[in-house]
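Run log, item B.
One chain of 90 residues. Sequence copied directly from the ordering sheet:
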Amino acid sequence: MGFGRNPYITKAEAAEQKALDATDDAARVRAYREAAHQWDRAAERERPGKQRDEMQQRADRNRALADGDAVEGDDAAADGSEGGPDFNLN
């Protein structure tokens, strides 16, 4: 891992994918909570600004999905596609 790279972004995205691929509700909830935790950790490593705010929003979104709340304006649950910005680590 090189300097300037935030390893928690990759971990958070992997946890989100794991939640989408989960076959039962308990596993899905755990994966969404893990994704939220990893997004929080990723946000902690960023300077205040737009990217940090987006990471915090993704953490909040994953927490809401874990709690079973419908996220307003989110079609990811309906069609299986991933929403939100794509962070490029290169």
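Observations after the first pass:
- Residues 7-70 form one domain.
- DSSP finds four helices and no strands in the chain.
Flagged for discussion on Thursday.
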